[in-house]
Task: structure prediction
Amino acid sequence: MVVAGRIHRRHFIIGAAGTAGAVVAIGANGVDAPALAQQTTEPQNGKALPEVVSWKDPDAVIVHTELTVETKRDKIGTSGITPSTELYLRNNLPSPSEEAVANRDSWEVSFEGVQNERTMTVGDLKRLGIETVAAVLQCSGNGRALFDHEASGTQWSTGAAGNLIWSGVPVRTVVEALGGVAAGRAFMTSTGGESLPEGIDPQTVIVERSIPADIAMERAILAWEMNGQPVPLAHGGPLRVVIPGFYGINNVKYVKKVAFTETESDAAIQRTGYRVRPVGVSGAPDQPSMWEMKVKSWVTHPLVDQQSGRIQIFGVAFGGNSAVQRVEVSTDGGQSWREANFVGPDLGSYAWRPFVLPVDLSPGTYTITSRATDASGNVQEEVTEPNHRGYDYSGWRRLAVDVTVT
Ligand SMILES: Nc1nc2c(c(=O)[nH]1)N[C@H]1C(S)=C(S)[C@@H](COP(=O)(O)O)O[C@H]1N2
Ligand SMILES: [Mo]
Result:
């Protein structure tokens, strides 16, 4: 695994140089997969925005690689929703070509493991029904950089997360139209529509994720709209699976197959990838999968030195798999806490809520951090224990920022 880490950094450099030749992407499982480098534009911080997200605001993001772009911590605002131009990107493989969104309504999805299996187009799905949900999209590796053990993978800090409004048809509605789930199918398994690199076992690279079927029937949506616009190709257009409360990886982009299955997918990304285990241990199907998210919050302002006087400390908080109930803020590294106020409308259980605490600060150095509590009483943890791939980070101690007031 140390080797995988080195490989990743080497390819990171290749990507940064904007080489147009073949690069190697690290699969979810640390598996090397040949993938075509995407054309790049506009250098930013020495690196170019990948072509598929050339429309993002270069000042709002950090380009890690051809396949990974992070939102800067201070760019998260107080209005609740993350603009698409600032949203992070995390691709395991390059997105499909623009052709996929040339005629969105003709994109086809096959439904399997239901009474009446069939293929439907996005146009067909739009006639079935619609629901809108606000939900946090967060990569399992968000906060990986805050662990000490140098877990391999993109060194995300706080910005592999956003809060989006999705519109689409509930999976439940589609399944009911197809006669219901077939007997004995405990999982919903969704397959991404990327073309796979040649000469490699598809199971080692395909993006195919399983979640419990009851969760899918309760809350999954097949979304064609994000923040009031057709879902951008990079974010899964023409059609994306959205599982509110579940980590990003389960939200399969450009979905081409939705199957109700007896067992979880055999794809590496499900079987051994995205499994939480102790450092040094290989991934295995009996370890917890990156499904539900945890209660989490972080401060987004101030992050730099301030003048003394009144300062508004703000950030974002979410409950993960349930609603966020309260947020406390500390300016002394967690010795004392004060309750913050939420800002703006409550967009539902799966959304994040901006929060604010006005403080009067005299000259000195302050360690500012926040701690959220969800509706079930779970309190954001102080420290997240290391795990091999650096997943599931939420500890408030290392999400703290040191700010000098003069
Ligand atoms: N088809 C497909 N779906 C995918 C991925 C992918 O590479 N291909 N990446 C997953 C991961 S790891 C994350 S964190 C989110 C990222 O979504 P975004 O790029 O829209 O921010 O999509 C998930 N769904
Ligand atoms: Mo992710």
Summary: The radius of gyration is 21 Å. Residues 188 and 260 are 4 Å apart (CA to CA). The domain at 296-405 is CATH 2.60.40.650 (Immunoglobulin-like). The chain is about 10% helix and 35% strand.
